[in-house]
Write a structure and sequence with these properties.
This protein has 82 residues and is of the alpha+beta class. It is 21% helix and 10% strand. The mean pLDDT is 93.
Length: 82
């Protein structure tokens, strides 16, 4: 089961667990679509992997396996990739 992290690691914006505008890498590094496309250009800065759309779980699945509440944020992301 995916962790479904609650925020973009680059800009720290909140990301809804049911949003289709969230991208992840193989290791579930999590990015909003804006950062993933315009800053990171589809490549995870942590592992070099491809960023793909995070699957959207069903409402019943979210009840059984709630999203993570642990925030991962790298404030240097915007400066390094600008």
């Amino acid at each position: 089961m995916l962790e479904i992290r609650p925020n973009c690691e680059c800009c720290d914006v909140d990301l809804a667990p049911t949003s289709a505008d969230v991208l992840i890498c193989t290791y579930e590094c999590t990015w909003c679509r804006t950062c993933a496309e315009s800053i990171l250009h589809g490549v995870c800065p942590n592992c070099g992997g491809e960023l793909v759309r995070r699957p959207v779980p069903s409402a019943s699945r979210l009840l059984d396996d709630p999203p993570s509440s642990t925030r991962v944020f790298n404030p240097d992301c915007l400066a390094v990739h600008a």
